[in-house]
Write a structure and sequence with these properties.
Number of domains: 1
Order of helices and strands: EEHHHHHHHH
Low-confidence stretches: none
Largest sheet: 2 strands, antiparallel
Strand order of the largest sheet: 1-2
Oligomer: single chain
């Protein structure tokens, strides 16, 4: 008997043990996770919190003081935007400008921005929440972190760190 990884294979006379079969989608997902882990090492939580306070506090100052967990939800959305930017960073490596690459994922960015805006509007106590200003601020926050992810991934591809 030969033990390989977590599976035990029985060896027959004169035959080699069979390898564990992995599918292409599993391999791609594992590779993507490893790349995302590497890219997440390049960001600072303090820098993200500073950006969130810069964009969101002027619009909803009391909500962030009353509900401090809203910062965590904003952090979650900005991390998603950053990772989306890193996913499209390989296009920057091949010479495509950021604006062209951004058009490829405009729908996902809009969804992230609208989701963040809806979450923050839901926690607003005012009857008429400043949705236009909040939507513009969430667009800018998500867009800024998408661009940072795009630049970091382009740089990583150029340095062959992917």
């Amino acid at each position: 008997m030969v033990q390989m990884g977590t599976t035990i294979l029985k060896r027959k006379k004169g035959k080699q043990p069979m390898n564990v079969i992995t599918t292409l989608t599993e391999r791609r997902r594992e590779k993507q996770w490893n790349f995302e882990k590497k890219m997440l090492r390049h960001i600072s939580m303090k820098e993200m919190e500073k950006a969130i306070k810069e964009w969101m506090f002027p619009i909803l100052p009391f909500q962030f003081q009353a509900y401090p967990f809203l910062i965590d939800q904003c952090l979650d959305m900005t991390i998603d935007a950053y990772l989306l930017g890193t996913e499209f960073g390989r296009f920057g490596y091949y010479g495509e400008p950021a604006q062209e690459a951004r058009k490829r994922c405009e729908e996902e960015l809009t969804d992230l921005s609208h989701c963040l805006c809806a979450t923050l509007t839901g926690w607003s106590k005012e009857e008429r929440a400043p949705t236009e200003a909040l939507l513009a601020a969430s667009d800018m926050l998500i867009g800024t972190w998408w661009e940072k992810g795009f630049r970091e991934a382009s740089k990583a591809y150029k340095l062959r760190l992917h």
